[in-house]
Amino acid sequence: MTQPKPPIEWNVLVARLTVFPESLTDNSHADWWKVVTGSEPENEQRRPREGIAEYTGTARIGDSRDVSLILGTRLDRTDWVIRALDRVDATTGAPELLGAVSTVLPEFTSLLTPWLTTKSPPALRVALGVQLTAIVDTPERGYELLLPYLPLKVEPTGISDLLFRINRPRRSKSLEDDTMINRLSTWSVGKFSTFVVPISGGGTPRPGSSVFGCRLELDISTEQGRTTPLPTAEISGLLNELATLSLEIAEEGDKP
Hints:
With 256 residues, this protein is an alpha+beta fold. The protein has helices at 32-37, 101-118, 139-146, 235-252; strands spanning 11-21, 43-47, 52-61, 65-74, 77-83, 123-136, 163-167, 170-171, 180-196, 206-222. Helix 2 (101-118) packs antiparallel against helix 4 (235-252).
């Protein structure tokens, strides 16, 4: 009889949507930020000769959560990234988190669906990336939590530096063709640390507070090599499928 897995309270550190377009011109993204946020970006950097632009500012997800938003564009890809407004808790050393993955991920995809369905150039490939963290008291506790989610016969005692990565492609259910979806997951236990920098600038940084955490990095994406754009009418359903697959791995662990 299979033992129940210990629940892991995964929280989102970073979420990313990447679109690999069929083509992109330097000025095609001029109004994208406003479509997503309803306002103008706080900062903008452009390198027209290289076809690179970056916009940064604040966006609201859900009813009342403000997050840091980044839009980065190159001629071959577009990235939307959210993270907490404050990167690290200066007192504990723990990274500032966006909230539970079961809440944040649907809010993130809802934020970007209008852009994806109305403004995004025809896409050859779409990827949803999520970095998740669960703070634990000790590395040993982290191993105890992670190992039941992995196909490994290892006792949690007497080990260190756990790192497990696997890709389990699965055929898409939202696309009518035979497109495969990569389900790449990376599992680990690590330490988050802060460093104290002297205000005078005359000394060297010294270690500050540290905390331990389980880590799960997900990269769920359509396969490479496609030569025709993904169907526009199915792109919203595809994004929802990528989010559903991400939540499945976080909740159930590695499985075929």
